[in-house]
Design a protein that fits this description.
The complex is a heterodimer of chains A (347) and B (308). Chain A is an alpha/beta fold. Helices cover 34% and strands 21% of the residues of chain A. Chain A is built from 13 helices and 12 strands. Chain B has 12 helices and no strands. Classes of the chains: A alpha/beta (347), B mainly alpha (308). The interface between A and B is medium-sized, with 31 and 21 residues.
Chain lengths: 347, 308
């Protein structure tokens, strides 16, 4: 079954000549703004990242950093208005999705790129059974009959390790526990065997013990299916386990991108450093927790220069004047800080 | 579910008794001589009055009268008019006509109201949205008899598109214009409620999920969005059937339809209290049954509503 899918999808369309980078999914200099009555909020200000088959990219950032909006733009579920894409590309197999017809984009959803959401209770339709919502994928997108779709849906519930999958087929979302609901959500998004899975804070709404189970399940499924996965989170602990690479976002920009080990060992941006330092540590028990002082910038009025400069302990006059570009600071890592070299090279 | 239904049916009993008693009491408490004008120009003979008083228990207090009435009613006997006509017959001829008219009105409400509500709820602030908002406000503000006479005159007399009145055969096609008149205010309310409900649910997370699944927009709206938005609309539609039937007096008058509106009007004018009570009692039943149906429909629409 997966062979059929791959052959269907790996053929790039006639317009897929973009840049022959061979990347599975690339976000290139994406810009999004929200036009509200109070003014224009520049939510995404030139985000660039990519994910390849079989790897997990973690997108890390505080609320309002634009990590979810980027994902919504990739999926084409950005609320317009108020959200408008003002520049950049989202290339899937080299083809810019932002310039595709609605019908072309729709076909990619679920089958090429699928998404799971933070709160499975509100993300699942309350008035349809969980089984119906999974089987719907097979019936509508694959044209299967009722019985076959049901069989496949139960098989999906099995794959996400829902006990008694057959019996739970006819349950409604509110009859599931939080963890089981998120499993059902995962089953639904993986039904069409997508090449990329975007997981938008998939464990935020769950108990800590359940969080670990869901992350393990996601990591396992990702490995088995060799999917590319974009894991959106604000939780550094979650990231360390499963991610291959990390992109840190701040005020709608990528401020640092690195391999997961290097990023933890030697952050090349003061914001990343602040994030790592603010994790509670047992060996510093009793001392006050370190925090990043100040608040994220108002996106309607981003400070000139580096958007992090008002909160940055290392800020110099240049930081208030020049926006630091995202530059290479070593093999496969980049940072948007005027003093990235100093940070990486300090001992 | 079975137990819930039984309990709901049992609850209907006191409500039914309470409402019917109130109606009975109010109607019989209307001042004036029930025999005035019954015997032409002259005063009715004492013998007649004595006979009728005996027959209708007019000398008893209202509780006894009501008890007698209910006893007969439970055996399917609505009693007789003062001119010895079976009230059951009057009800049996008038009700189907009104029901037919009310069903046409309800269908028009559902189709036009829901259609307009869905279209405008999905695209708010567009031309269509403003058109619907203004026209529904217009319909709500206009009294039914104005809508009725204007449409009758325009479509029936001036342009000759339809017959100005409805024939005694009550063909469905003849009922479209009267049905629209009867349901005009409700169409407007349904459209507005549906619009709000659709617009609210349009931004719901599960709609976003349905889009992210790559379902065609038709299915996202028609299956995922509509089902969740229908609950307030169904409430309005269900409870409206009773209101439509009770409110058909004006519409039936304008279009010459022989329904309960006319029957009740005639009965009130001629002080035929038993007829008034009989017709209204059936109307109460319609209300009660529709309310129960609406409650049962909720569960079909939203599985989170449980009947325990």
């Amino acid at each position: 079954m997966s062979d059929i899918l791959v052959s269907e999808q790996s053929a790039p369309g006639p317009g897929g000549s973009g840049r022959p980078s061979g990347r599975l999914l690339e976000v290139d200099d994406l810009r999004v703004e929200f036009r509200t009555r109070d003014g224009v909020a520049k939510v995404i200000n030139g985000v660039t990242y990519h994910v390849d088959a079989g790897e997990t990219l973690a997108v890390l950032g505080e609320s309002g950093s634009g990590k979810s909006v980027t994902a919504q733009t990739i999926m084409g579920i950005l609320d317009t208005p108020p959200g408008f894409v003002t520049g950049g590309q989202v290339r899937f197999h080299g083809k810019d999705m932002l310039r595709m017809s609605d019908e072309e984009r729709r076909r990619i959803r679920g089958e090429g790129i699928a998404m799971i959401f933070q709160d499975a209770l509100s993300a699942l339709n309350p008035v349809f059974t969980v089984g119906f919502q999974i089987a719907e994928q097979f019936r509508v997108r694959r044209g299967m009959g009722r019985a076959e779709a049901k069989k496949r849906a139960i098989d999906m519930l099995d794959q996400v390790k829902i006990p008694n999958a057959k019996g739970r087929f006819n349950n409604y979302p509110h009859q599931f526990s939080g963890g089981m609901r998120q499993r059902a959500m995962i089953a639904m998004s993986l039904a069409l065997d997508p090449e990329v899975l975007i997981a938008d804070e998939p464990t935020t709404a769950l108990d800590v013990t359940v969080q670990a189970q869901i992350m393990d399940l996601l990591a396992e499924l990702q490995r088995e299916r060799q999917m590319g996965m974009i894991l959106i989170t604000h939780d550094l602990g979650v990231v360390a386990d499963v991610a291959d690479r990390i992109a840190v976002m701040y005020a709608g920009r990528i401020v640092e991108e690195a391999d997961v080990y290097e990023l933890y060992a030697k952050p090349a941006h003061p914001y990343t450093l602040g994030l790592i330092d603010s994790i509670p540590r047992l060996d510093e028990k009793g001392q006050q927790l370190r925090t990043i002082k100040g608040l994220p910038p108002n996106l309607m009025n981003i400070p000139p220069g580096c958007p992090f400069n008002p909160r940055c302990p290392m800020a110099q006059p240049v930081c208030r004047e020049k926006v630091p570009p995202l530059l290479q600071v070593g093999p496969a890592r980049a940072s948007a800080c005027h003093f990235a070299e100093e940070l990486v090279n300090r001992v | 579910m079975g137990r819930y239904l039984l309990r709901r049916l049992l609850q209907l009993v006191p409500v039914f008794i309470g409402t019917t008693f109130l109606i009975y009491w109010l109607v019989w408490a209307v001042p004036g001589d029930p025999f005035a004008g019954k015997c032409g120009e002259r005063r009715c003979p004492d013998q007649y009055i004595a006979f009728m008083t005996e027959k209708y228990h007019l000398d008893q207090n209202v509780f006894v009268q009501y008890g007698n009435y209910m006893k007969n009613l439970l055996q399917g006997d609505f009693g007789q008019t003062f001119s010895q006509r079976d009230i059951g017959d009057i009800i049996a001829t008038a009700y189907p006509n009104t029901l037919k008219l009310a069903l046409v009105a309800l269908a028009i409400e559902a189709v036009i109201g829901l259609g307009a509500g869905v279209l405008t709820g999905l695209r708010r602030n567009g031309f269509l949205d403003n058109l619907v908002l203004v026209s529904t406000l217009f319909l709500i503000a206009l009294p039914v008899f104005v809508v009725g006479f204007v449409l009758q005159w325009l479509l029936g007399v001036q342009w000759g598109l339809v017959k100005p009145t409805v024939s005694s055969e009550m063909r469905w096609s003849e009922l479209i214009v009267p049905g629209f008149v009867l349901g005009s205010a409700s169409v407007a309310y349904i459209a507005r409620v549906a619009r709000t409900s659709i617009a609210e649910n349009r931004r719901a997370d599960y709609v976003r999920t349905a889009i992210a699944k790559g379902l065609p927009m038709r299915r996202v709206v028609g299956v995922h969005l509509l089902r969740n938005s229908l609950i307030p609309v169904v409430t309005l539609l269900g409870t409206d059937l009773g209101a439509l039937m009770g409110g058909a007096i004006v519409t039936e008058g304008i279009f010459g339809i022989n329904g309960i509106g006319r029957a009740v009007y005639r009965a009130i004018v001629t002080k035929e209290s038993a007829t008034v009570v009989g017709i209204v009692v059936v109307l109460v039943l319609v209300y009660l049954v529709m309310n129960l149906l609406v409650d049962l429909l909720y569960a079909a629409l939203d599985p989170r509503i449980r009947y325990e």
